[in-house]
Write a structure and sequence with these properties.
This protein is α/β, with parallel strands linked by helices. It has two domains: 6-134, Chitobiase/beta-hexosaminidase domain 2-like (Chitobiase, domain 2, 2-Layer Sandwich), CATH 3.30.379; 140-495, TIM Barrel. 33% of the residues lie in helices and 18% in strands. The strands form four sheets. An eight-stranded parallel barrel has the order 7-8-13-14-15-16-17-18, surrounded by six helices. Helix 11 (373-382) links the parallel strand 16 (366-369) and strand 17. Helix 3 (154-166) runs parallel beside helix 5 (215-227). The chain is elongated, with a radius of gyration of 24 Å. The protein starts with 15 loop residues before the first strand and ends in a 25-residue tail after the last helix. The chain binds acetamide. Acetamide binds next to loops.
């Protein structure tokens, strides 16, 4: 969209935007007519716009803002919507309620940025007249936040979700457990949080770190996210990345008498779960409680970076491998994941895991491929559903530029905005059947190096805007057009109080200029 219409510089870019002459004025007398089935969207509109603009947006049968479900828009799927803003009326339509939620976010972006700030008060606010028809490319557009390495309170997670929804992302993947902390309360195993949520220090800083959620907090978060059309996918790591659990319950490990601390280091920890039946009872019990809190169809059980040394050195694990007819202790990993995966399938959920190669997990797993882009294709070829999470394009814990004075980040070359934007989850040369299995993509923020909310947002934005744009708007991309829209969009981020990385020349350098790794 040209700079002359900055208010139409939407992120993500809608499928079709047709500017129309005139402006729609919102004022104290503007009411909302919510037709049957649209109540949740009307509520969201009021929740998001009411406090920010100071306008009541009261319900009324003759309201000039009309929300309607329209089966004729079925071609726009679960999340598509149509928005017509005319001088006299604003009409938002979708085939499904979630589409209306996406349209509400577009209405917010059409308003002047000050209307987003919460502190602004004006007698009236104007939107440009426009006709929009919009539909996402991918059904999975997400962000993973690691709250295991550094805990964040639910009040912050609500804001995090609000910012995802603002960019039409629909998945918050919550990394709840790891070697360095266990944040999910489990009634049957209270020591997971009473012991496992505290660590003595991080990266030798001498500063203890703690934190755990209550189930009520997590349920409230799930509800808050659902009202914005965002699914919270919980992740409980197994059989590796479990040092915090083993600090709480050493009998679940391969050396039952051993006493372990919640890990204070960073990297891949050798300690993994044992393979005796008590461990499977534990995993099933934990996951029952997880499923009780999180209605998400997808339940993530990690699975990556699981050294098999302890199993190789354990007579009990070797015996178990032999008894199960496995080739050796190294095969216990796939067997373990398969057993837990089948349990989740029996419960009607979709097991999800990090793929090390794309081909090692049972086929009923939805896999997140992160090590190498080639793994995504290998997984799809094999028949897995795939979420593209390649670390050199979607890990936001790497710095995003070589600007001087950047805060500490995950060691490694920067992952620049252009690289995130250029990431193509299913490149054109893939076969159709492979590409169809790609559900979408998501960003990850591992937080060993990231403690504060400001740092989370500095690393996340504007790179998450780039990921959201490509995941929603689809193939090809238009880098110059995106940068131009983003320049206007930063005014919205300012109004929302997001301390994003500024758009410096270095941060906007393209991979072809040789400063950032190739997108693929
Ligand atoms: C990962 O980065 N451990 C998936």
């Amino acid at each position: 969209m040209p700079a002359s219409r900055p208010e139409l510089s939407l992120v993500p870019r809608p499928r079709k935007v047709s500017p129309r002459p005139g402006r729609f004025v919102l004022d104290a007398g503007t009411c909302v007519r919510a037709l049957p089935g649209t109540e949740a969207a009307a509520e969201l509109l009021r929740t998001l716009l009411g406090p920010a603009t100071g306008l009541p947006l009261a319900p009324a049968a003759d309201g000039r803002i009309v929300l309607a479900l329209d089966p004729q828009l079925g071609g726009l799927g679960e999340e598509g919507y149509g928005l017509t803003v005319g001088p006299q009326a604003l009409l938002l339509r979708a085939a499904r309620p979630t589409g209306l939620l996406r349209g509400v976010q577009t209405i917010r972006q059409l308003l002047p940025p000050e209307a987003l700030s919460g502190g602004a008060r004006a007698a009236s606010w104007e939107l440009p007249c426009v006709e929009i028809s919009d539909v996402p490319r991918y059904p999975w557009r997400g962000a993973m936040l690691d709250v295991a390495r550094h805990f964040q309170p639910v009040s912050y997670l609500r804001r995090y979700v609000d910012l995802l929804a603002f960019h039409k992302l629909n998945t918050l993947h919550l990394h709840l457990t790891d070697d360095q902390g266990w944040r999910m309360p489990v009634d049957a195993f209270p020591r997971l949080t009473s012991v496992g949520s505290h660590r003595a220090e991080s990266l030798s800083d001498g500063v203890p770190h703690s934190g755990a959620y209550t189930k009520q907090e997590l349920r409230d978060l799930v509800g808050h996210a659902a009202a914005r059309g965002v699914t919270v996918v919980p992740e409980i790591e197994m059989p590796g990345h479990v040092r915090a659990a083993l600090a709480a319950y050493p009998e679940l490990g391969n050396h039952p008498g051993r006493s372990l601390d919640v890990w204070t280091e960073w990297g891949v920890c050798d300690t993994v779960l044992g393979v005796h039946e008590q461990v499977f009872d534990f995993c099933r019990t934990v996951l029952e409680e997880v499923m009780d809190v999180f209605p998400s169809p997808y339940i993530h059980i990690g699975g990556e970076e699981c050294p098999t040394t302890e199993w190789e050195n354990s007579p009990a694990a070797r015996d178990r491998a032999a008894a199960e007819g496995l080739a050796g202790p190294g095969a216990l990993h796939g067997w373990f994941m398969g057993r837990i995966g089948s349990f989740l399938v029996e419960r009607g959920r979709r097991p999800t895991g990090w793929a090390e190669t794309g081909t090692e997990l049972p086929l009923d797993f939805t896999v997140m491929t992160w090590r190498d882009p080639a793994h995504a294709r290998a997984a799809a070829r094999r028949g897995h559903r795939v979420v593209s999470a390649h670390h050199r394009a979607t890990y936001l814990d790497y710095a995003q530029s070589t600007d001087p004075g950047e805060p500490p980040a995950q060691p490694g070359d920067p992952v620049g905005l252009h690289t995130v934007y250029g990431n193509e989850p299913a490149p054109e040369d893939w076969e159709a059947g492979e590409a169809e299995l790609v559900l979408g993509t998501q960003a990850q923020l591992w937080t060993e190096y990231v403690r504060t909310q400001d740092r989370i947002e500095y690393l996340t934005y504007p790179r998450l805007c780039a990921l959201a744009d490509r995941a929603w708007s689809g193939s090809g991309g238009d880098w110059p057009g995106f940068v131009e829209r983003l320049r206007h969009h930063t005014a919205r981020l300012d109004a929302l109080g997001v301390p994003y990385h500024p758009l410096t020349p270095r941060s906007l350098m393209t991979a072809s200029a040789g400063t950032a790794p190739s997108p693929r």
